[in-house]
């Protein structure tokens, strides 16, 4: 008996709606994040992630409402990322019903934020989101911001190492080279990060077919995040989990 | 009535709704009188052992549990809320726990920590908490755990690097290292088992 690998659908939200395409026919309102979260919960998602890409404070407040309404009806872990700058931001999200938060840009700008969050809430609430791509830094990978558009010259492996020592509990590793390609997760990068990383890794970016998921697990991922393949119904969560189960990976398979 | 003790830790919203799925009256409160007299008390807990214990003491909750033990009313500890039932925790530094149960809460020995995700539990003999959900997975998120079985209690075990206590059942104090309120349908069933087996006899 072993710990199950996790499948985590990710929803980008802004202004109370799911943004970036979602294409379901069986939902009354495909753009409602709470309804979509509940659907994924019923289908056996092991966790849910909301990424708040709001541009304004007003929009951000609607995200809190989404978190509240989701936490009231979906009894699986919920991670919320986007716009978190302070421990008070974290507290507000946790009180609203989030179980974990993910931070990215704010931690790059001020790494001490990691220590502050971990000291107050424990490292298990804190996911470090790393948008990495190939570059001429020491490890061959650099950290980017603004969805991969801006390089930072920060070496991705050194940054992960530092963030773990400061107290992050998980790494969400998003390959900016693989993101959107649907040609599979970035396996070499996953293996390089796995070799030096003592906390769980959530792989993100590039999922397009069943075998991509098993390849990523074989390369050391503990959990797999995907968005568009689920939103557009190209693959369903139960099908992905059944496939991985048939490949011998420990999975949480829901019984009827 | 079931009271969920609010002493400053994390996400209580899901906990409240999860318990409401099996009981008509559930409140989140820090009021000592309500907590002392509630038919069932839930002690949640996130964060580090020491910080959690500090907040617990500051909220006057030690007295609450003493009173409930004296009046033999049921209490359920979850995650760090379970850990502080033990005599001592050694997260960051050594911290005194409530000492309801003997033994220490120590760091799990495993290559990847925290232990995050859905794991199986081997229910102890005579477990009521796991009735009907013996083969389900539950959601864990922690790096520390108690490993020494409690004499005279039903000890349920999970394996991650080492064997540790996933749940303990005694006549009044029950605790789970995992989060039943985050464990989907299996977790809701466990909550209902606790309510039916301990709270509303």
UniProtKB/TrEMBL annotation, chain A:
It catalyses: 5-[(5-phospho-1-deoxy-D-ribulos-1-ylimino)methylamino]-1-(5-phospho-beta-D-ribosyl)imidazole-4-carboxamide + L-glutamine = D-erythro-1-(imidazol-4-yl)glycerol 3-phosphate + 5-amino-1-(5-phospho-beta-D-ribosyl)imidazole-4-carboxamide + L-glutamate + H(+). This is imidazole glycerol-phosphate synthase. InterPro entries: Aldolase_TIM (IPR013785), His_biosynth (IPR006062), HisF (IPR004651), IGPS_HisA/HisF (IPR050064), RibuloseP-bd_barrel (IPR011060). It is found in: Cytoplasm. It is an enzyme of class 4 (lyase). Keywords: Amino-acid biosynthesis, Cytoplasm, Histidine biosynthesis, Lyase. GO terms for cellular component: cytoplasm. Belongs to the HisA/HisF family. Coiled coil: none annotated. Pfam families: His_biosynth. Its main location: cytoplasm. IGPS catalyzes the conversion of PRFAR and glutamine to IGP, AICAR and glutamate. The HisF subunit catalyzes the cyclization activity that produces IGP and AICAR from PRFAR using the ammonia provided by the HisH subunit. GO terms for molecular function: imidazoleglycerol-phosphate synthase activity; lyase activity. Heterodimer of HisH and HisF. Its EC number is 4.3.2.10.
UniProtKB/TrEMBL annotation, chain B:
GO terms for biological process: L-histidine biosynthetic process. InterPro entries: Class_I_gatase-like, GATASE, Imidazole-glycPsynth_HisH. Keywords: Amino-acid biosynthesis, Glutamine amidotransferase, Histidine biosynthesis, Hydrolase, Lyase. CDD domains: GATase1_IGP_Synthase. It holds the Pfam family GATase. PROSITE patterns: GATASE_TYPE_1. The keyword Lyase applies. Pathway: Amino-acid biosynthesis; L-histidine biosynthesis; L-histidine from 5-phospho-alpha-D-ribose 1-diphosphate: step 5/9. The keyword NADP does not apply. Transmembrane segments: none annotated. Residues 4-186 form the Glutamine amidotransferase domain. It catalyses: L-glutamine + H2O = L-glutamate + NH4(+); 5-[(5-phospho-1-deoxy-D-ribulos-1-ylimino)methylamino]-1-(5-phospho-beta-D-ribosyl)imidazole-4-carboxamide + L-glutamine = D-erythro-1-(imidazol-4-yl)glycerol 3-phosphate + 5-amino-1-(5-phospho-beta-D-ribosyl)imidazole-4-carboxamide + L-glutamate + H(+). Gene3D superfamilies: 3.40.50.880. NCBIfam families: IMP_synth_hisH (TIGR01855). Heterodimer of HisH and HisF. This is Unannotated protein.
């Amino acid at each position: 008996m072993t710990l199950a690998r996790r499948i985590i659908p990710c929803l980008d939200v802004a202004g109370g709606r799911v943004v970036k395409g979602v294409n379901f026919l069986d939902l009354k309102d495909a753009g409602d994040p709470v309804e979509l979260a509940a659907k994924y919960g019923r289908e056996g998602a092991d966790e849910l992630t909301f990424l708040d890409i709001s541009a304004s404070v007003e929009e951000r407040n609607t995200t809190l409402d989404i978190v509240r309404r989701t936490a009231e009806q979906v009894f699986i872990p919920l991670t919320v990322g986007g716009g978190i700058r302070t421990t008070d931001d974290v507290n507000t999200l946790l009180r609203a019903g989030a179980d974990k938060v993910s931070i990215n840009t704010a931690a790059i700008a001020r790494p001490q934020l990691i220590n502050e969050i971990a000291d107050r809430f424990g490292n298990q609430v804190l996911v470090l989101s790393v948008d990495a791509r190939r570059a001429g830094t020491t490890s061959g990978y650099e950290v980017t911001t603004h969805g991969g558009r801006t390089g930072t010259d920060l070496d991705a492996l050194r940054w992960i190492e530092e963030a773990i020592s400061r107290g992050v509990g998980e790494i969400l590793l998003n390959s900016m080279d693989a993101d959107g390609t649907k040609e599979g997760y970035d396996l070499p990068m996953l293996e390089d990060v796995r070799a030096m990383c003592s906390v769980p890794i959530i792989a993100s970016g590039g999922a397009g077919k069943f075998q991509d998921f098993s390849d990523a697990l074989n390369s050391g991922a503990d959990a797999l995040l995907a968005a568009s393949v689920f939103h557009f119904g190209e693959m369903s969560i139960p099908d992905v989990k059944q496939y991985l189960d048939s490949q011998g990976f420990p999975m949480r398979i829901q019984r009827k | 009535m079931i009271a969920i003790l609010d002493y400053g830790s994390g996400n209580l919203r899901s906990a409240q709704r999860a318990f409401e799925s099996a009981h008509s009256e559930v409140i989140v409160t820090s009021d000592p009188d309500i907590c002392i007299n509630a038919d069932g008390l839930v002690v949640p807990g996130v964060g580090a052992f020491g910080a959690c214990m500090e907040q617990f003491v500051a909220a006057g909750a030690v007295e609450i549990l003493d009173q409930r033990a004296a009046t033999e009313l049921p209490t359920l500890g979850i995650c760090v809320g379970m850990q502080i039932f033990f005599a001592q925790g050694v997260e960051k530094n050594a911290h005194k726990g409530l000492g309801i149960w003997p033994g220490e809460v120590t760091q799990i020995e495993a290559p990847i920590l925290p232990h995050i995700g859905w794991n199986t539990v081997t229910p102890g003999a005579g477990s009521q908490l796991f009735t009907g959900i013996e083969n389900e997975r539950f959601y864990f998120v922690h790096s520390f755990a108690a490993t020494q079985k409690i004499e005279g209690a039903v000890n349920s075990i999970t394996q991650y690097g080492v064997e540790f206590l996933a749940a303990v059942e005694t006549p009044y104090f029950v605790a789970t290292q995992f989060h039943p309120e985050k464990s989907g349908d299996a977790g809701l069933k466990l909550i209902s088992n606790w309510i039916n087996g301990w709270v509303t006899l």
